[in-house]
Amino acid sequence: MENTAINFQELTELALQARERAYVPYSHFAVGAALLCKDGTVYQGCNIENAAYPATNCAERTAFFKAVSEGRRDFAAIAVAGGPAGEAPAAFCPPCGVCRQVMREFCGADFAIVLSDGGKIQAYTLGELLPCSFGPENL
Ligand code: THU
């Protein structure tokens, strides 16, 4: 990211830190996210499960809802890392469809989605992961 002080590796480290706070008594699958605003501010999120399973919130949406509820709408990138709780991530954890749609509400097609398997990093754009999407301008 040329116009921000943080790089994708550092953003991933913040996602891994957030992952430590995941509340996952049912799936035991812990996910962390770190959402980068265009001014360099980062909002972290983890998945928060619920005994009534559909009430679960993904890590990505936790980060977005924290940021938007604080008045932010200016996002550059999100890093995501997930895997079995208590273990280091060993595979990439792409955002679910609901989270992609939430990103679509606030971000352009160039918004960066950064995945880590604990070693390598893969970077995509929202346009790549949610093509031909429905957004605010369609209403
Ligand atoms: N989960 C996330 O937090 N983010 C993703 O990108 C995929 C799935 C969570 C939801 C649930 O708590 C657990 O992972 C298993 O689906």
Quick description:
With 139 residues, the chain is an alpha+beta fold. The chain has four helices and five strands. It has helices at 8-19, 59-69, 97-106, 126-129, and strands at 29-37, 42-46, 75-84, 112-116, 121-125.
Plain-language structure description:
There is one protein chain. The protein is of the alpha+beta class. It is globular, with a radius of gyration of 14 Å. It has one domain (8-138): Cytidine Deaminase, domain 2 (3-Layer(aba) Sandwich), CATH 3.40.140.10. It is built from four helices and five strands. It binds tetrahydrodeoxyuridine (THU). Tetrahydrodeoxyuridine (THU) is lined by residues 24, 27, 29, 31, 47, 49, 56, 58-60, 80, 82, 93, 95-96, 99.
Task: Supply database-style keywords.
139 residues, binds tetrahydrodeoxyuridine, 4 helices, Cytidine Deaminase, domain 2, alpha+beta, five-stranded mixed sheet
Beta-strand share of residues: 15-25%
Q: In sequence order, what are the helices and strands, one letter per element?
A: HEEHEHEEH
Fraction of helical residues: 25-40%
Reading off the top of the CATH hierarchy, the class is best stated as Alpha Beta
Q: If classified by CATH, what would the architecture be? A: 3-Layer(aba) Sandwich
The CATH homology group name: Cytidine Deaminase, domain 2
| Bound ligands | tetrahydrodeoxyuridine
Distance between the termini: 32 Å
How many strand elements? Answer: 5
Largest sheet: 5 strands, mixed
Output the radius of gyration. Answer: 14 Å
Individual helix count: 4
The largest beta-sheet arranges its strands as 2-1-3-4-5
Low-confidence stretches: none
